[in-house]
Specification:
Blueprint: E1 7-10, E2 17-22, H1 29-41, E3 60-69, E4 72-81, E5 87-90, E6 93-94, E7 107-110, H2 116-119, H3 122-136, H4 143-162, H5 172-206, E8 212-217, H6 223-228, H7 230-236, E9 247-252, E10 255-256, H8 257-260, H9 263-285, E11 290-293, H10 302-313, E12 317-322, E13 334-339, E14 342-343
Parallel strand pairs: 1-3, 2-12, 2-13, 7-11, 11-12
Antiparallel strand pairs: 3-4, 4-5, 5-6, 8-9, 9-10, 13-14
Helix pairs in contact: 3-5, 4-5, 5-9
């Protein structure tokens, strides 16, 4: 169903606690969470193709969202049209880009496809932890983008030199930049992991995943290393060393959960990461982020549901979807029942 993508003005209660969204499969619960994400972050967690946010047969969609961040109220409006660029306003003022909302309102989301953080390849984990870094250290939020641009420029210089269109001397400035920014990126990632890991370990333990830890794999690149492998990089026309090839191992004791974790353990790992980041952001900002948990209860037993409810119930606001009200073992702060196209 796509009815919530046609128009939604959401006025959830402002008090901290759990908002339980209940409805049958296909009624639009995930669409409601998607609308909340669009309204607070400026983009969908599911797709970056804005046209997919418009209901079939319609030409535009709009999300209106009112809420409070700490002591400050906010009123957001986002319009997506098949005939014009996406428009976003915050408290009546037009934003240059809808994604600017990410700097004003923190929102973290869990959906079943987030298991790729554990199950997927290194690129998925790098992207995830670089987003954590950007949220936790906004002043260094562009460092991964700057590094990627430097690598792209070095690779282009390698290709030109390999076919004789430029000299090898043209590679040297980009090697130096890759080494400099790469070392900064590794240091920033390590700081972010160090800040995240204590809460991650604690929360994972409470959820039943013992001895959980994060292990960064990779060393800061140096100019000497890049110069020593120049022949290999010329042959392959690509930079074969640096943080664009690093990984973060998610462990339970000595077990790497990517290859040796059950589906349930992988789900708990992603949940623990999300809640650890929420705690970190709440400590840094003084305001807890909005949590959106889609279909998170269906594969948890009663004990873990109770633990999860306690972890999220007293900080900020958490929106949880389920097919039955009984899935949540505590009384929610607010209850929303979803039927196709409506929420009450």
């Amino acid at each position: 169903m796509r009815d919530f993508r046609s128009y939604a003005r959401l006025e959830l209660g402002l008090q901290p606690g759990i908002v339980l969204v209940v409805g049958p499969n296909g009624a639009g619960k995930t669409n409601l969470l998607e609308a909340l994400h669009v309204g607070t972050q400026g983009f969908s967690p599911r797709t970056r193709v804005d046209a997919q946010l418009i209901r079939f047969g319609a030409t535009a969609s709009r999300v209106g969202l009112v809420g409070r961040r700490g002591d400050a109220a906010f009123d957001v409006g986002i319009t997506v049209s098949s005939a014009a660029a996406k428009r976003a306003t915050l408290n009546g003022a037009r934003l240059v880009a809808a994604e600017q909302l990410r700097r004003e309102i923190e929102t973290l989301v869990f959906t079943p496809d987030r298991l790729a953080i554990v199950k997927g390849g290194p690129a998925t984990r790098r992207a995830y932890f670089d987003r954590v870094l950007a949220r936790a250290q906004p002043a260094r939020g562009d460092i991964s983008t700057d590094y990627a641009a430097a690598v792209a420029q070095r690779n282009a210089a390698l290709r030109r030199a390999a076919v004789g269109l430029s000299s090898r001397d043209a590679i040297a400035p980009w090697s130096e930049r890759v080494a400099t920014i790469g070392a900064e990126l590794v240091a920033a990632r390590l700081e972010a992991l160090a800040a995240l890991e204590p809460a991650f370990r604690e929360i994972a333990g409470k959820l039943g995943l013992a001895a959980a830890s994060l292990a960064y794999e990779g060393e800061p690149p140096t100019l000497e290393q890049l110069e020593s492998r120049l022949e290999r990089d010329l042959d392959r026309a690509t930079t074969g060393l640096g943080p664009h090839l690093h990984d973060v191992r998610l462990l339970a004791g000595d077990r790497d959960l990517r290859g040796f974790g059950s589906q349930g353990e992988q789900r708990l790992t992603v949940l623990a990461l999300l809640l650890a980041e929420a705690r970190l952001l709440a400590t840094q900002r003084g305001v807890a982020p909005l949590l959106l948990l889609d279909d998170v209860l269906s594969e948890l037993d009663t004990v873990r549901r109770t633990v999860l409810s306690a972890l999220v119930g007293d900080t900020g606001q958490t929106v949880v979807t389920a097919t039955q009200r009984s899935a949540l073992p505590v009384e929610p702060a607010q209850f929303v029942e979803v039927e196709p196209g409506t929420a009450r």
